């Protein structure tokens, strides 16, 4: 009798173990899904402004950024009056403007160009040239915004290089100025620090190439 009972219990245990094993196999592997999601998040590439820049920031780029001062701590490059091997390279998503002599970068400027709407910047991309249009300041009543030290790269003088924006009273808009070099912020023009915009207006020859790209 005892032997028969033992056999029955043994058989029951074996059946129970098999049932549990089958149940585990048939259950959806939720923990694995969670782990897969976590791994996917870890491997996702986060695109920062720096990743869009064609050049690394120089060691003498001013830190912290200061819209009241030149972008670099070194002197501005000396430009000849009729120099024709210059190019101004603009990185919209990188928030930088580069002064190139030939293929060599000679100066890096903090910048903020047009806001991106539906994946497209309000600043047009393409190849342009510096125009004759320049001035000390302007004010747009429709935008209730102005700027100083403007230089045109558009034949209609719609798109400009200029300082960080000013308010209707002529004072600088601090909130907007602090976006310089950090993120796109303008209505289409390319904002620079106050000294950078002044230097560009006073030194860059008419006809200098301007290349504007997202990166």
Blueprint of the fold:
Layout (H helix, E strand, L loop, with lengths): L1 H25 L3 H14 L5 H4 L33 E6 L4 E6 L2 E7 L5 E2 L2 E2 L4 E4 L4 E7 L4 E8 L7 E4 L10 H4 L12 E3 L1 H10 L5 E5 L2
Parallel strand pairs: 1-11, 9-10
Antiparallel strand pairs: 1-2, 2-3, 4-5, 6-11, 7-8, 8-9
- Rg to the nearest angstrom? 30 Å
* Amount of beta strand: 25-35%
Spatial sequence of strands, sheet with the most strands:
3-2-1-11-6
Q: What is the subunit organization of this protein?
A: single chain
**Mean pLDDT metric:** 86
| Shape call | globular
Low-confidence stretches: 29-34, 38-45
| SSE sequence, one letter per element | HHHEEEEEEEEEHEHE
How many DSSP H or I helices?
5
How would you explain this protein's 3D organization?
27% of the residues lie in helices and 25% in strands. The protein is an alpha+beta fold. The strands form 3 sheets. Strands 3-2-1-11-6 form a 5-stranded mixed beta sheet, with no helix packed on it. Strand 9, helix 4 and strand 10 form a beta-alpha-beta unit. The N and C termini lie far apart (86 Å). About 7% of the residues have low confidence.
Structure, briefly:
With 215 residues, this protein is of the alpha+beta class. 27% of the residues lie in helices and 25% in strands.
List keywords for this structure.
single chain; 215 residues; alpha+beta; 4-stranded mixed β-sheet; 5 helices; 27% helix; globular
């Amino acid at each position: 009798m005892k032997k028969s009972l033992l056999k029955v219990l043994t058989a029951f245990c074996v059946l129970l173990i098999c049932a549990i094993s089958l149940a585990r196999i048939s259950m959806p592997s939720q923990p694995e899904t969670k782990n897969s999601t976590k791994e996917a998040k870890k491997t996702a590439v986060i695109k920062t402004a720096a990743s869009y820049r064609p050049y690394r920031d120089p060691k003498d780029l001013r830190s912290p950024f200061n819209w009241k001062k030149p972008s670099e701590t070194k002197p501005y490059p000396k430009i000849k009056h009729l120099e024709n091997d210059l190019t101004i390279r603009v990185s919209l998503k990188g928030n930088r403007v580069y002064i190139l002599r030939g293929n060599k970068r000679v100066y890096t400027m903090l910048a903020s160009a047009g806001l991106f709407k539906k994946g497209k910047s309000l600043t047009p991309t393409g190849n342009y040239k510096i125009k004759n249009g320049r001035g000390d300041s302007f004010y747009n009543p429709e935008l209730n915004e102005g700027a100083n030290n403007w230089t045109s790269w558009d034949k209609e003088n719609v798109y400009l290089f200029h300082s960080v924006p000013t308010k209707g009273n002529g004072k600088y808009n601090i909130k907007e100025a602090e976006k310089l070099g950090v993120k796109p912020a303008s209505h289409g023009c390319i904002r620079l620090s106050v000294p950078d915009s002044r230097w560009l207006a006073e030194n860059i020859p008419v006809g200098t190439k301007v290349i504007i790209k997202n990166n």
